[in-house]
Amino acid sequence: MKSQNKTSWTIKQIKNYAIKYASVLDTGDASPLLGLSPRNRHHAMVSLANLAKYEGRYDVWAAIRNRYSLKWTSGNESLQALQRFFNPDTSTSLDGMLQQIRLMIKKTPTLMGKIIKFGVLVGLRSAEIVESVRLINSGVYTLQYYNPEQQVLQHYKFPQFLRTTKKAYLSFVSPEMLENVRTHKSEQVPSYNAIRLTCQRRGITCDMRYCRKIHATYLHQEGIPVEIIDALQGRTPANIFAKWYYRPSLHYRSKVLQALEKLKNQL
Question: Smallest Cα–Cα separation from 215: which of 227, 195, 230?
Fold first, then answer.
């Protein structure tokens, strides 16, 4: 899994799911997977597929999948998206998510709060946020990672951001935004798990996944086209990304930075 550029957090998650559901390969009974949510079922299936390959029993896993009609996707993503759109739960609205992020920033130590705030501005995934801050505080910061002329964090230059199914290519960030997470020592940057456990000890829910959702929702609200938001959040093929990066629109870059500055002031 390391050779596939999977993060240590992802590897740990796969290992935990594999341990929990390993009996499925031994007994051929996949009924424990049927009661899981689509998201957790997918995680369990990925873990069992990796375990089966490692043990040379992938044919057994394939037969179990076929017998229980287990699919990699639920096939109702559009319906789920529609349900989320009309979900009256205010906790998942933009204001509700901002309120939770503000609480996390307030209740966690200063550096952790700064990392959470930075995560909202770059729109990365939880573990990627921490990795980005670590790189900013490493020796590659001025050499490879940040392009001050373009005001771009160049995630695409580092394999940990280019995983098989999850990618991050670039983030528009002003120098002022970067200075907020500069500690000058990369070893001082806490892990995502440390942030999660700190939130747990202080009686608050760690919802760092909201960082990415707020980033996309706020930019769209500020008139940034969906295509650019997708590119900034890594939902773009590499060949198209190259076009975005080497010939970026100055108009949209400045517009994104202006929107992020407004968002920063709300945090």
Answer: 230
